[in-house]
Amino acid sequence: MDKPDRLRRLEDLARAIAYRQALIRHEYWPRTKLEELQQRRLAELLDWATRRSPLYRQLRDTHRISQPYSLQDFPIIDKKTYMEHFDEIVTDPRLRIARLQEHMANVSGDEYYLGQYRVLTTAGSSGQKTVIVFNRKEWSIQEAASMRIASMMGVLPFSRRRPKIVTIGSPSPLHDSYRLPLSMDIGLYRYDVLPATAPIEELVQRLNLLQPYILRGFPSMLGLLVAEQLQGRLHISPCIVAGGGEPLTGELRKQLHAVWGSSVFDIYGTQEGLRAMECNLDQGMHIFEDLGIVEVVDEDNCPVPDGTLGHKILFTSLISFTQPVIRYEISDMMVLAPEPCPCGQPFRRIIAINGRNDDVIYLEGLAGKEVAVHPVHFWNVLESFEAIRQYQVVHEPDGLCLRLVFAEGNGHIAASVREQLAQKLQALGVTCPSISVELVTALEDRSRNMGKWKNIVSNVDRSMPVGANH
Ligand SMILES: [Zn+2]
Fold first, then answer.
1. What is the pTM (predicted TM-score) of this model?
2. How many whole angstroms from 375 Cα to the centroid of ligand 1?
């Protein structure tokens, strides 16, 4: 990296440290003050977007949206539409998707695009890859949010003992789990990123050398590492373990705590800038609402009350002015807490994420009727078996296949797993579900996407009527 880039990184980080102070102050605000801040930032964002983004200018005119703008006047945008209109959404006409693709193909570290942008892409685990661009100021806010996450885990910048933070994440600088540490690795913390796609033996060896104070990773990876520790190959004792990118189950949380004695935190984040994180009271993940607005809605896009499971969420970023993210559809099905957290922070909390709505599997029920089986039903059964380290449910035209990774010597319980799942499905109205079990030592690479597993995979084309294959 040449010198100007290093200087820019330092400037970006210095700005982030100032932003972090502001973020910490918000944590002590009353809810009303937070909502005022949201409304002020939203008004700025909507005003900016309708003036500077060709798509939003056009939407304002066709939908006849007038000042003062209300968020609900704006149409919902899904990932596919968002990417199709990328060039018209961005507020800098120099940003063109074709050029950005060329840039992304050549990124090997923390390179700037046009000297001022960082370009990321999503893992695409919900099927649609998106491209996200942050200008330097916006990136500093991402860095500040990352520092807030560290402080919520009890790690402060400039502390005398710089703790070693090891993230096992995407090996790509186009993903924020790698790019953020890379851009901030100038002395505040000691960061290492290990690729989640590396063989487990290699990860064990590296971790034994690194001895992390904080270990972050996808829960499926943390589950594998706990097994390695129990089997005597891994010897680490992280004080803090944080999971993210996949659901952190109650069973895994118990294991992580029991094996390493660590404090365990669950973190939620999307590359578009939505972040949520547990406080140390373990009462759900606090949404960083000073940086974004989350609407939990049903299938018809109507808001659902707190305490109720939504079908998806709509996310509006209050900090993305380069590439406005307004009522952007995210397929996670979540429940927000109806009460504020006892810790006193003004943020609303995610108390459950029941998978993605595209993880729902449709099986044949009585009289040929389709039964929508929610991923939570699979978790409920599979999580109740302590010996299951990892799982994948594959929906094939002729039935379900459970691909299971067991703790050593526990393969014999496969039959009872199958039996319990069959009972569960029958109780839901699924008729004679055909379930096969495949015992595997690790889930294969082909099911990984930037190091992330997909727990529910469907190889059935839903456009075919149910039962057509029987
Ligand atoms: Zn709290």
1. 0.81
2. 27
